[in-house]
Request: fold
Amino acid sequence: MKLALIGSTGRTGRHTLAAALDRGHDVTALVRDPAKIPAEARDRVRVVVGDSTDRTTLADLLQGAEAVVSALGPTDKQPDLHTRTARELVGLMTATGPRRFVGVSGAGIDVPGDLKAPKDKAISWLIRTLGGDVVKDKPAEHAVWAASSLDWTLVRPPRLVDGTRSTAPLEHDAHRSTRSTSITRADLGAFLVDVVEQDLYPRTAPFVATPRR
Reply:
């Protein structure tokens, strides 16, 4: 599959890039600094240099792509980065394709149909109340995708931690929060590729976590 990948040099994105290449996908990666692409991957990806909120850059990224995968992380310098990126992507993808998008949101946002446990509802309320502008970006991004006609998925992980891939199946569900309260970045990166490969959870924001050991 021809994938357009955003955030491929971040702490989760590097695992997404590795998983996509290991599974034989044709990847075009959007980066700000090409030097940050791992040496072993440089000859295996087409690189587009620029910002995820720039329409011309995104148009170049999307050329020939069958799906867009974003592992873009939050940043205090651009607290509305995900919403601005979503708006540009929705406009381009609606007009010229592709129609499939898979990205990362957060377990703290609420969406229609959720069946969160009481403790998870309380945690979500605290995150929304105390998290500042970066936290507000996530539900705003979801609203942009939900209002579109595209086939989007926004994966909602809990706390991100470093670590290796799990050998057990991950916990994931469209609306029920996971028992586990963390996920390794390696597991999340691979799960993003799983979602696009298997066309999981279209127009849904599933929860996912590394199972407790």
Summary: The CA atoms of residues 28 and 51 lie 14 Å apart. The mean pLDDT is 93. The chain has six helices and ten strands. The chain has one domain: 2-209.
